[in-house]
Amino acid sequence: xxxxxxxxxxxxxxxxxxxxxxxxxxxxxxxxxxxxxxxxxxxxxxxxxxxxxxxxxxxxxxxxxxxxxxxxxxxxxxxxxxxxxxxxxxxxxxxxxxxxxxxxxxxxxxxxxx
Length: 114
Known about the structure:
Layout: H1 2-22, H2 53-58, H3 60-69, H4 87-90, H5 100-111
């Protein structure tokens, strides 16, 4: 019973609002479309700050990029324990290996992936 009254109230409000919509002038022009340049740039497929290591390890191309920039990372005995973390998060545990420069290089290569 309560459900019906909510639906009925919503329908009643919709009917009340209809005349207000009809009162708009018919000559109003539609809003101009945004130019293509105003749309945001395509987001990278992966990032070192947002993509978990497990996802990177499961993609052979991404895994190769990580291994190229941080040699030995993907074959480390402990890498499986870090699957749920990001490379940026791992940086605090291995700051000499996972440097800002290496992360930037990885992100640059990730940005080129389709």
